[in-house]
Amino acid sequence: MDILITFLTGYLPWIIGVLIGVPALLAAYIIGFEFVIRLLPQERQGWVRPWVWVGPALAFVAVFLVYPTIGTVIVSLEDKQGNFAGLLNFQHVLADFPTGDGWISIRDNLYWLILYTGFVLLFGVLLAVLTDRVPYETPVKSLIFMPMAISFVALGVIWTFMYSYQPPGAPQTGTMNSLLTTLFHAQPITWLQDKRVNNFALILAAIWGQTGFAMVILSAALKGIPGELLEAARVDGAGEITIFRRVIFPLMMPTITVVGTTLVIFSLKAFDVVYVMTQGNYETNVLANKAYLELFTAFNKGRSGAVAVILLLAVIPVLIFNMRQFRTVEARR
Amino acid sequence: MSVAQERLSAPVAKAWYAPEQLTERISGLALHVAIIGITVAWLVPTVGLFVSSFRSLGDIQASGWWSALSPPFRFTLDNYSSVIQTNGLGTALLNSFMITIPATIIPTTIAAFAAYAFSWMRFPFRNWIFLALVGLLVVPLQVTFIPLLSMFRALGDMTGGFIGNGTFPAVWLAHTGYGLPFSIYLLSNFFRALPSDLFESAEIDGAGTLTVFFRIILPLSVPALASLVIFQFLWVWNDLLVALIYLGGTEQVAPLTVKITSLVNSLGQGYQLLTAAAFLSMIVPLIVFFSLQRFFVRGILAGSVKG
């Protein structure tokens, strides 16, 4: 009941105001300016109009992406008092190779980059090809894709329960440890604390969540391969495996590349799963989490900035690759 | 991702059966077993949590979720009622809506304006600006937090706490900025594919820019707009990082993701409540997902560059 009252008094006016106010404001902007433009001489109109239409978007992008990126690069070069400090923050973050905090984070991100990207692509291709051959394809794909709709927070809770641990001898309540003890008669593992396995445990959870993403895109690419091509290969006596290797795989390669680059970006930005499941403890502190902790628990802007800049440098190859891809696609239009 | 889009519309490959031979029958059986096995394995984590959410703390600590599937059945709704009543999940649910709805409407509208200009107007540096947007698609958000936090602190002082850190408008604006490169990219790809004769004949008939936009482009783009709205909605609804940064620990405005994360850290062994909390947070995305899956998948196909 209380909730209903809070809702009616505290939220409903806001929601209505926002639902009506925000679109009204945006419509007023574009209609108002269009009205002003019509008062201009004909030859000026074509010059002003585009900037009115892209203006808000460019302003937002400039304020929320371009300006702060430059600002962070500057902050990463300053000490706590805001004086120029050169690469001092980077020196601190990258101290003590290979056991320093920064290097552990970089190592963790490399695990993510290789294992997460690799396995999501592998499972994605596998599931796309397998499900293509059965009549109940749609429901199966839907169920595997479902984790994409939920948050990484919910995913983290789901997998925290999967990995839960009881001491040896006690009945295991976590699915993973139960499988381990009953099927393999092994000792239970503290999946999230044991430094030998915890990074892989986190990555497994993320793979479970994102395989559907790769599968759906790759499956669309697979359906685009003309049936006659496969028929022709079959008539020529090629086996299913040869067809996959020589026909399907090469034709899917451009899509695999696109999905792969997206996954590389995801892997570098990995944050939520780690933050929810281990808070970055026990050597699972990926760069994104480290940037957060430096800012909000260590209150060290410079170092947080330096970690963020390292992250930025890591995505630059993908950024250049994407821009090149885009230009070649544009050139073909 | 226009490649995948084009391919999606191409004819569907036929299933590859020639079921005469016995070996093929066997491999067919193996295929079914493999697919059903994988699907079941994929469902286990979610089902496990779902079953757990109806069990009492004692039961959860004493045995695994699978033992609840055999008699005696002892299911309870206690976890749900207590997490809503004592842990403030209801407020968090409302907050999630308060954050997500404007943070979906604003970027979609602004992106539609911009995409129209990028697709059908000529202006200096147009292609260069668009290329820069493609580049910005992959920029990690971490690189924007420190300056924006100071900016919102200053804005908060100026506006008497209306737009500052820990307020809804701050998250709306941040999500708008972060979501725009992708939104513009997705909509531009769609707008550009519309046939140009449509606008030319409308312009000959004397229709102005506004008429073309509101009467021709928007109605024709409903599928693309729907994909974008769903995509952005789910993205904001499921977001933890942006809310964590700009809303911080402010309890009254925390959305579900932030609330559940703080429960993870604070509940410790009382954590059977988390099962119910996680499920409550999944209800809205799952309804959106299962009812509008078609549009969601199209959005993913059209813009898999987003991170």
Radius of gyration of chain B: 24 Å
Beta fraction of the residues of chain B?
A: under 5%
Give the fraction of residues assigned to helices of chain A.
over 70%
Output the radius of gyration of chain A: 26 Å
Overall helicity of chain B: over 70%
Instruction: Assign the CATH class of the largest domain in chain B.
Output: Mainly Alpha
Flag low-confidence runs of chain A: none
Strand count, sense and closure of the main sheet of chain B?
Answer: none
Largest inter-chain contact set: A-B, 123 and 126 residues
- Strand percent estimate of chain A: under 5%
Account of the protein in words:
The complex is a heterodimer of chains A (333) and B (307). Chain A is an all-alpha fold. Chain A folds into two domains: 2-88, no CATH class; 90-332, MetI-like (MetI-like fold), CATH 1.10.3720.10. Chain A is built from 13 helices and no strands. Chain A is globular and about 80 Å long. Chain A starts with a helix and ends with a helix. Chain B folds into two domains: 2-80, no CATH class; 83-302, Orthogonal Bundle (MetI-like fold), CATH 1.10.3720. Chain B contains 15 helices and no strands. In chain B, α8 runs antiparallel to α12 (241-247) and α11 packs across α15. By secondary structure, chain B is mostly helical. In chain B, 72% of the residues lie in helices and 0% in strands. At the A-B interface, α1, α2, α4, α5 and α6 of A face α1, α2, α3, α5 and α6 of B.
